[in-house]
Amino acid sequence: MCGIVGYIGSDEGRDILIDGLRRLEYRGYDSAGIAMVGPDSRLQIVRCEGKLNGLESKLKDFPVSGTVGVAHTRWATHGRPSEQNAHPHRCGPFALVHNGIIENYAVLKEQLQANGHCFSSQTDTEVIVALLCREWEEVNDYEQAVRNTLKKLKGSYAVVIVNELEPDRLVAARKESPLILGFTEKAFFLASDVPAILPYTRQVVYLNDEEVVFVSRSGYRIESLVDGSLRAPVPHRVDWDPIMAEKAGYKHFMLKEIYEQPRAVIDTFRSVVDLETKQVSFPELNVDKALLEKIDRVCLVACGTSYHAALVAKYMLESLCRVTVEVDLASEFRSRDPVLDDKVLLLVISQSGETADTRAALKEGLDKGAHCRAIVNVVGSSIARMAQGVIYTHAGPEIGVASTKAFTTQLVALYLFATYWAAETGRLPREKIEQCIQDLVELPGKMEKILSDTSTISAWARKYKDFKDFLYLARGALYPIALEGALKLKEISYIHAEGYAAGEMKHGPIALIDVEMPVMVLLRQGPLFEKMISNIQEVKARDGIILALIEGEPSEIIGPAENQFIIHPSSEWLSPVLFSLPLQLLAYHVAVLRGTDVDQPRNLAKSVTVE
Ligand code: AGP
Fold first, then answer.
1. How many angstroms separate the most distant Cα atoms in the chain?
2. Which of 60, 239, 254, 489: CA 20 to 30 A from 534?
3. Nearest atom within ligand 1 for CA of residue 383
4. Is the pLDDT of residue 507 over 70?
5. 184 and 201 Cβ atoms separated by less than 8 Å
6. Quick check: CB of 355 below 6 Å from ligand 1?
C-alpha cells in the first residue's frame, strides 16, 4: 500500500512531510515524491524512483518549501516503479497523491485522451488529477470539481490534493482505502496511517468511506459524497507508541497481514473482475483464446509457499480447464533440463518476484521457447519484467517473512486464471462462470467470519505448543494446504511439522502415530470426506491426537468439539483459502507462546535472492 502525508499549518512543512514518509517506510514502497506550494504560490514537485534517500538528495538540488504540501511513497499497482509513475501527479494547478486501485481508469483515460489530454505516466492516479482538471475547467468551482471527479471513480482511493491557486487549502477523500486527519492548534495533517503524524499530534479523526474533507488553515469540513451531509466527529486520541503504530496496533506484522487478507483478496479480484458483467480480464497477461487453445501442457513452478499455491492450482486447472498440469519446485525444474516447447505455458509464482531459483526456472522456459508468464506481488520486480505477461496479486507489501496474504491472493489469482481459461475456451458454460465469480465475491465475508473468532485456535496453541512433532493430513485440493500449514508452523515456531497426503498414511507416516503426535486433519464435505474419516479413525486407534478443521459442522466421530474448528462451506476451489487462515493463526500463536521472532524467524529471509 502507498504512504500518504499531507500538511497545512503555520510552520515550514517540508521536513514534516519527509519525516512522515519515513515513518511509513515499513509499508514497503518503490518510489517517492513531494509537492508543496511555495512562498511564491507556485507548485513545486520533486519525485524519484527508489527510496527516500534518493528523494532527499534530489531535494538538495531542487529544494521545495512552504506551509502546505503533500508527500507520497508508492507501492506500484499500475505501471512499474519509475520517476514518471511516482506521485504526486500534476495537472494544471493541482498536485494529487493516491492510494488504492481505480478500476475504471482505462475507460476514463480513453475519454480524456479523446479530449486531447496527453498522459505522461502509466498510472491510474494520473487519470484522477486529469479528470479533476477537466471538471474544474467545466464548473470553475474547486469543491464541486472534486465532488464530480470522485463520483466518477470506481474502485478504491485515498487522495490528497494541493491547489496552487488556493494555497490555504488541502482537500482529501477516501473510499475503501484508509485516510486520517490529525490536528493541533496551528496545523492540520492528513495521512494514510497513524505513524506518519504521531510526533505532531495524537488527536485524529478517521475519515469514512465516500467522505471528502476540505481543510483550511483554521479548520476543516467533512462532507459525505453520497448525500452532501456534514459530519463533525469527536476526535479520537491515539495512545499507540510509534512501533505499535507501524503495525496498526497489531503485535506483529504477520498478525496484521493475516487480518489484511479479506481486503487483499478484494483488491486482487477487483483489479481483474468487472463485477457488473462478471467478466474476468488480464490486461497485463498477454494471453488470449488462441494461445490457450494452442497450449497442451501447463508447467507451474515456484518455491516454498508459492509452490503450495501452484499445487492447489493443479487440481483447479485440470478439473476446470481439462489441461495437463505439471508442478515443480523451481530449484528442481531449473536443473533437470525439462522438456519444453511452444505448446507449453510456463507459469511461475512468486510474491517477491526476486527468488533466484524461480528466476532461473523462468529463464529456462524463455530459453526453450515456452510461453512464460508470472503471478507476482511486486510490480516491476525482476520476474515481472522477465516474464512475457503478468498477473499481479494486490496483497500490498508483505513484511512478515512467513507468507500469508500473498499466499491467499495467489490462490485467488490462480482461481481467476482458471475461470478465465474455462470461459475463453468454453470449458464452462456462462452460468458456471458467473457462479465462480459470485463464489469469489462471497469469499472475503467468509474469511472475516473465520478471523473474527479464533479462541479455539488460541486454545490449541496453548495446549500443544510444547509438542515436538506435528503431522498435517488432507486430500485433494486441501492436501497442499496441509503442506502449507506444516510449513507455517515449522518456519516460525521451529517445531518439526510435516504435511502429507492422507492417503499415504499406510505407506509410512502411520508408524509415527502415538500420544506425542498431534495430527491436524483438514476435511470438507464431498467424495473424500469418508476417506478422511477412515484416516482419523486409524490415527485415533493408535492414540494419536486429532485436531480437525472441518467444513460445515462438527462430527462426533472425530472427537470432542473443542478439537474441531468449523470452516464455513464454500466452493471446492476456494476452500483452500479458508482452510489456510486457522493454520496461519495456529502457527502464529504457537510461535508467540514459544517466544520466537515471529516476523523475522531465525535463518530465514523474506526473499531468497541467492541460490
Ligand atoms: C513462505 O512462508 C516462505 N517465506 C517462503 O517459503 C517463500 O514462500 C518462498 O521463499 C518463495 O518466495 P517468493 O514467493 O517471494 O518467490
1. 83
2. 489
3. 16
4. yes
5. yes
6. yes
Spatial distance between the Cα atoms of 251 and 259, rounded to a whole number of angstroms: 12
Own/partner pairs for 124-127, CB < 8 Å, 24+ apart?
Answer: 124/77, 124/78, 124/98, 124/155, 125/87, 125/89, 125/96, 125/97, 125/98, 126/89, 126/91, 127/102
Within a 10 A sphere around the Cβ of 473, how many other Cβ atoms? 28
Residues 6+ apart with CB under 8 A from 79: 85, 121, 122, 123, 379
Mutate to test the pocket of ligand 1, among 403, 410, 494, 580 (most ligand atoms within 8 A of CB): 403
For residue 607, which atom of ligand 1 is closest to its CA?
Answer: 15
Rounded Cα distance, 401 and 599, in Å: 6
C-alpha 135 to ligand 1 mean position (Å): 45
CA-wise closest residue to 362 among 347, 381, 379 = 347
Q: Grid coordinates standing for 609? A: 535472492
With a 6 Å cutoff on the Cβ, whether 352 touches ligand 1 is yes
Mean pLDDT of 131-149: 98
Q: pLDDT digits over 532-589, tens only?
A: 999 999 999 999 999 999 999 999 889 898 999 999 999 999 999 999 999 999 999 9
Size of the chain in residues: 611
- Would strands 230-231 and 220-224 be described as parallel, antiparallel, or unpaired? antiparallel
**CA dist., res. 54 & res. 432, Å (int):** 50
Whether 303 is catalytic: no
What CA–CA distance (Å, rounded) separates 515 from 333? 39
* Residues 354, 382 contacting (CB under 8 angstroms): yes
Residue 611 pLDDT greater than 80, yes or no: no
308 alpha carbon to ligand 1 midpoint, in Å?
10
- CB neighbourhood size of 65 (10 A): 15
102 DSSP 8-state letter: B
Query: In whole angstroms, what is the distance from residue 253 CA to residue 258 CA?
Result: 9
Active site residue 2: yes
